[in-house]
Amino acid sequence: MTLLTLVGKVDKLEEEDVIFAREKWTLESDAAVFRLTEDYMVPEEPKRIGLKYFLEVHIALDVLEGFILEKPDAATRQKCERLIEYSIHDA
Asked: Is 2 helix (H, G, I), strand (E, B) or coil?
């Protein structure tokens, strides 16, 4: 799944989930969702397949909530670009 596709479904994910994506983050980066371990560590699976921590779902939803207030008609592409920008510069 691409990061763009996953962002289009972010509102259907559990808030405890974490988005992992292959760097350099782009709209087309491979992406998947995993849960942190009980001790809040990155599980082995995303590491094994070359994915890095991108954002926790609850943080992504918070960022998008503010973004949608500014741009209520934002397309999924714009939302994904905003999350990439946030992950690189603000997370």
From this structure: strand
Residue linked to tokens 């082995």: 44
Distance CA 3, CA 82 (A): 12
Q: How far apart are CA 23 and CA 38, in angstroms?
A: 25
Domain that holds residue 14: 3-89
User: At what angle are helices 76-89 and 57-70 packed, to 10 degrees?
Assistant: 120
pLDDT 10s digits, 21-39? 999 999 999 999 999 999 9
Asked if 48 contacts 54 with a C-beta cutoff of 8 angstroms, the reply is no
Domain count along the chain: 1
Q: pTM score, two decimals?
A: 0.92
Q: Could you please report the per-residue DSSP string of 3-68?
A: HHHHHHTGGGS-TTEEEEEPSSP-TTSBEEEEE--TTS---HHHHHTT-EEEEEHHHHHHHHHHHH
